[in-house]
Design brief:
- By secondary structure, the chain is α/β, with parallel strands linked by helices.
- The chain has helices spanning 34-40, 52-62, 79-82, 88-102, 117-121, 124-135, 155-164, 184-196, 230-238, 251-265, 270-291, 309-319, 334-343, 356-366, 375-383, 393-396, 405-426, and strands spanning 18-22, 44-50, 72-76, 108-113, 140-145, 175-179, 202-205, 220-224, 242-243, 299-302, 323-329, 349-354, 370-373, 388-390.
- The strands form 3 sheets. It has a 6-stranded parallel sheet with strand order 1-12-11-10-13-14, sandwiched between helices. Strands 3-2-4-5 form a 4-stranded parallel sheet, sandwiched between helices. A 4-stranded parallel sheet has the order 7-6-8-9, covered by helices on one side.
- It starts with 17 loop residues before the first strand and ends with a helix.
- The relative contact order is 0.14.
Length: 427
């Protein structure tokens, strides 16, 4: 590999046949999104209405120590609630009152539904409206479902942001809204690039605090940084905002194309665009080339998990020299994933949904050099001699934009390097 630009597009996968299968799936709970959202929104609290299993999941995923004061918790269904002996809404009101009296710093409270049937029966939307009236204007109460029954785990963020859109203030001003939760350091890098391009009145959803509230109106354009925000996309369009379609900002090529779509919308000159992006682009290409030495010429197989699969496959094939055998997605949304599919070289099987046993058969037959999958499949496949990468790690690790491009390539290179080292040691 070298630091030259990716090869020209030949073919593409946007019109390729899609294998659609429905059967047993390997998915992670949508409550997991709370782990990165509660770090992003500094004045928010996420109150899960669920079981002790929900509480254990969040504590395990977040690594919460006993003396920590996290900004999430669980209103646990007790035996009396399950038996219908208590008024669940009255119990929820009592829990919220206790929480807000103890934590006066909370400005946004999210009631998060889970998958127990007793929770599904609760009208959390009505509860949120009732609690908003009780605690406004100091606290805004919203609700969404984090249940993993019908969705993959990243769609917990999608449901959260979609719940925020209807209550955002209206504006007639021309503004750019960047949508998707990013680590603060990555968000600052992104805002620095947009500022260098001379683009003003930029807002981010979700904002770090409620005081920096996003405004939406007929002159709003928005760009997505995450490929799993289909419901948020629809909610913004209903508010009158217009989506700037582009590949997602993963790797040098994706970041440049994402910025170029915004620059074209706001009339940024080619000279200014080149001046602003030339240095970080070169750094990104060099970092990717160095990290991708272990990836060049290798094959990759994606199980559907995080909704990041298509843009990641585009990055690995066009910037790291890999070949994709199958690219599986839980859901394919043409308005979101189409630009990346246009760039993905023709050849791989594109699949939507999952029958996990049939997909495992295809993976075993193909024997890819690297398999990207969920935690539940990784260890069994490793035992069969296949190198794997946990899909969830790609969500928890900063991977967007130029300065993280080399780190993104390294995440995929690491399992192959480890296997090579272990192989040498065994000899």
């Amino acid at each position: 590999m070298n630091d030259l630009a990716p090869p020209p597009v030949t073919g593409g996968c946007r019109s390729a046949p899609v294998l659609k299968q429905r059967g047993q799936r390997e998915v992670f709970c949508g409550l997991t999104g709370i782990i990165w959202l509660h770090r992003k929104m500094q004045d928010a609290f996420f109150l899960v209405v669920g079981s002790r299993t929900c509480a254990h999941l969040l504590q395990s995923a977040a690594g919460v120590m006993i003396f920590a004061e996290p900004r999430f918790g669980t209103a646990i269904l007790e035996e009396s609630d399950l038996a219908g002996l208590n008024d669940a809404h009255a119990e929820l009101d009592r829990e919220v009152e206790t929480l807000l009296s103890r934590r006066p710093d909370i400005r946004q409270l999210f009631l998060v539904g889970s998958c127990p049937s007793e929770v599904i029966k609760l009208d959390l939307n009505r509860a949120a409206e009732r609690l908003t009236q009780a605690y406004a204007p100091k606290v805004r109460v919203l609700e969404y479902s984090g249940s993993g029954i019908e969705t993959t785990f990243t769609q917990g963020e999608d449901a959260c942001l979609a719940a925020m859109v209807p209550v955002l203030p209206k504006t007639d001003a021309r503004n750019l809204v960047v949508v998707g939760a990013l680590p603060d350091v990555v968000e600052d890098q992104m805002l620095g690039l947009l500022d260098g391009l001379g683009i003003k009145n930029v807002q981010v959803l979700p904002a770090r605090t409620i005081d920096a509230d996003v405004q939406i109106g007929p002159n709003t354009v928005f760009a997505l940084t995450q490929p799993f925000l289909g419901e948020t996309h629809a909610a913004l369009v209903r508010r009158g905002a217009r989506h700037l379609t582009a590949p997602f900002p993963l790797g040098e090529e994706g970041t440049t194309a994402w910025l170029a779509a915004i620059a074209a919308e706001f009339g940024v000159s080619d000279d200014l665009f080149e001046q602003t992006t030339e240095a970080p682009r070169r750094r990104a290409r060099q970092a990717v080339a160095q990290a991708a030495e272990a990836l060049d010429g290798k094959s990759v197989f994606f199980f559907p998990d995080s909704q990041l699969e298509i843009p990641l496959a585009r990055f690995l094939t066009r910037e790291c020299g890999m070949s994709a055998i199958e690219v599986g997605m839980p859901y394919i949304h043409d308005a979101l994933h189409g630009p990346d599919l246009d760039l993905l070289p023709a050849g791989p099987q594109i699949s939507e949904g999952q029958d996990v046993d049939l997909q495992l058969d295809r993976c075993r037959e193909a024997r890819p050099d690297l398999t990207v999958c969920g935690l539940g499949l990784a260890n069994p496949l490793e035992a069969e001699g296949l190198s794997t990468k946990w899909a969830i790690e790609l969500v928890f690790t900063p991977v967007h934009f130029y300065e993280q491009a080399g780190d993104l390539a390294s995440l995929f290179a690491r399992p192959l390097r480890r296997k090579s080292i272990l192989g040498v040691a065994a000899e």
